[in-house]
Amino acid sequence: MSKVAVLGSGRAVCASTLARNGVSVTLFESARGPGGRMSQRREKTEDGTELHFDHGAPFFSVSQSEVLHLVKDWELRGFIAEWKEKFGSFDFHNLKFNNIEQEGLSKRYVGVPSMNSICKALCNESGVESKFGVGVGRIEWLHDEKLWSLSGVDGQNLGQFKGLVASDKNIVSPRVAEVTGRLPPLDINLVTELSEKLLNLPVKPCFVVMLAFAEPQSTIPVKAFSFENSEVISRAYCDSSKPSRSTASERWVLHSTAEYAEDIIAQTGLKKPSDITLNKVAEQLFQEFQRTGLNISQPFFKKAHRWGSAFPAASIAPEEKCLWDRNKRIAICGDFCASPNVEGAIDSGFAAALRLIDSVSSL
């Protein structure tokens, strides 16, 4: 029997830390590959050209010593690198860049050759059994055996575990039923205190638009920038400028404002957006990008994606860094616990692992 089940490859840091400390881990991920919000999107154009985009978190920074220690190890192992580009800020009121930073002010890291390289490497470590394409549909607590029993979305038995790590803030949320038509995997009454903290967690939706250009957009003086005074677009990143990326085309990823995304969702609902909606979003964000007056050319590829609730708007356990029930040996962790960014997700996963190591090893 595996001792601990980890739900979601976004918590690969937790799975890796557990395995390195002698706890056997089974990781379940409903998607085909690892990464969650750090996943890579593969697209094909009409002529068969394959394009890759980091369509979620574009990079991450580190401020805490515990996380920096992990990051330096990853850098030595070659699956992350520093993204050494200048960032800027563009103001739509005066159609000018207000600020272009000097080099070396802050380090920004990216996975290489893609953001999901971090999760890929950690999911493949010794002691971690990773099962992709396996969604968990039901989680039950066996009171007499004091074990967690997991069932797949299709009802198949996935095993029994002494400890459980969940990384999805929607694990007890009725929102799951709105989106998928299924009940949330975990009964709210099994972990009442933990559930209460998760139920009204504020989130920021976001649409991203992936663009590919045949030629460099040489009129843009930076490779990443934020926008001021736009109701539509918040950030733009040149994905192909990151280390170890293909430069056969110049690829940009645009992020909408949360307000714009909320407005679209209010009109269309929480279910998977239609192609009509996504095409409309792609066109609107690209038009706003062109409104900068930077002479941006027409892309040969343009596609939108919705992140419905991936970006938390608050942290619910900034001191503890994860939610923890010692009696049932369940930890719920993620950027919504520690701080709403990649570093917060790493920090929270590490904290959850430490609690489980102490608890499971004493059994």
UniProtKB/TrEMBL annotation:
Residues 113-356 form the Amine oxidase domain. It holds the Pfam family NAD_binding_8. It comes from the Eukaryota. This is Amine oxidase domain-containing protein. It comes from Flemingia macrophylla.
